[in-house]
Amino acid sequence: MPRQREKVQRSVAHYRNGTYKEHMSNLSLSERLEILADAAKYDASCASSGTAKRHSRDGKGLGSTQGMGICHAYAPDGRCISLLKILLTNHCIFDCHYCVNRKSSNVRRARFTSKEVVDLTLNFYRRNYIEGLFLSSGIVKSSSHTMEQMIEVARSLREDHGFRGYIHLKTIPEADPELVERAGLWADRVSINVELPTETGLAKLAPDKDGKQIEGVIARIGDAIAESRDARKRFRHAPRFAPAGQSTQMIVGADEANDSQIIERASHLYNRFQLRRVYYSAFSPIPDASAVLPLKRPPLIREHRLYQSDWLVRFYGFTANEVQQATDADGMLPLDIDPKLAWALGYRERFPVDINRAPREMLLRVPGLGTRAVAAIMQARRCHRLRLDDLSRLTRFISSLRPFIITADWRPTLLIDRLDLRARTTPPRQMELFG
């Protein structure tokens, strides 16, 4: 550790003694790739699902948004998408406390030119390493200048090289609005991070950012996406605008926001701006951290529970208010059980549910039943009345299901009223590998 610290200090001293341009020219391409790929790992919003299907099997262009492809993202249908995930530069004029690349951070700095990112993307694709590009950046010179460089990467890939693979651009809300909207003409997906769940947290930890400005840009992009889809219905060759929609990311655990506030914020973003995804990223302690940041990261299971709550709203018919009812007095989701089970334990009067008669909406609220299992139940019960054995073939959580369901041969007797029901339905605790 002392040797590594000395190495960083020598690097910082070298950087401060020379100009920014001189420092960058001393790094090889592979060294810069190592620095900027590592700096991009904190951004979770790199899934590539939902885009338009394009390929180059007809001999025209290069790349594809389909099939199996160094960052791996997983689409809802299980496909693994390989993306080159890098920053254009980790130099930044902003000083967000939680960011490892903030202005006051003593990290090695590097940058790519637009042409270098284009060449890297094409070379990695031709070697079958990747299927697309996820490009973000710190802010160098100005927000608009940086945004222009990122747009040039996407434009060159599409126009100069006929690249038809996936492109995700992380846009900069402080840039000129015209530039931000241009990004959607070349990228499959654009995203703008709201950073933190509350205005108070944003003002405290990211004083250079403006929450209202961020929402304003998200709204303009949302309008442009809606207009593009409407135009495509009326005019076949109307240009596409961010066909995979837009997403955002919130940092969990860096400020004092509880899970209930995060759920409410995510619901607001979904309802008002029709975002494709809200990503949650557990705060990770960084070197030379500011005194206003917590000393320890939150448990990773907290991030997982927030994703589960997000799924309940998006796919299971829950409202944000219902998910919030699963939180405790401090507004936190329980870590030992999933949010749907926590909600069911709080509303025992709605159970047990008759598997052979209940509507789909109620079946989706049964702990242990996923969307696929519910679809299979709806299909199978058209032919015959389902028994407990039939249900065990559709789901592996039959033991935790018993208190909440009625089948042709099973009816729980006062099981739903047991005081130890939570303990009986709580799955065995799985320890964290790196906890």
The proportion of residues in beta strands is: 5-15%
| Overall strand count | 9
Q: Helix amount, in percent? A: 40-55%
Total number of helices = 17
> CATH superfamily of the largest domain, called what?
Aldolase class I
Strand order in the sheet with the most strands: 1-2-3-4-5-6-7
The low-confidence parts are 1-23, 65-69
Distance between the termini: 21 Å
Average pLDDT over all residues: 85
Summing up helix and strand content along with how strands pair, one would put the structural category as alpha/beta
Sheet bearing the most strands, described?
7 strands, mixed
* Large-scale geometry: globular
The third-level CATH topology of the largest domain is TIM Barrel
What distinguishing features does this structure have?
S-adenosyl-L-methionine, 9 strands, alpha/beta, 435 residues, TIM Barrel, 2 domains, 17 helices, 41% helix, DNA_rSAM_put, disordered N terminus, single chain, two-stranded parallel ribbon, metal ion binding, 7-stranded mixed β-sheet, iron-sulfur cluster binding
Question: Can you tell me about this structure?
Answer:
This is Putative DNA modification/repair radical SAM protein. Residues 82-309 form the Elp3/MiaA/NifB-like radical SAM core domain. Keywords: Iron, Iron-sulfur, Metal-binding, S-adenosyl-L-methionine. With 435 residues, the protein is an alpha/beta fold. It has 2 domains: 17-298, TIM Barrel; 339-425, no CATH class. The chain is 41% helix and 10% strand. It has 17 helices and 9 strands. The strands form 2 sheets. Strands 1-2-3-4-5-6-7 form a 7-stranded mixed sheet. β4, α6 (177-186) and β5 (189-191) form a beta-alpha-beta unit. α5 runs parallel beside α6 (177-186). The longest helix is centred in the middle third of the chain and has 24 residues, at 211-234. The two termini are 21 Å apart.
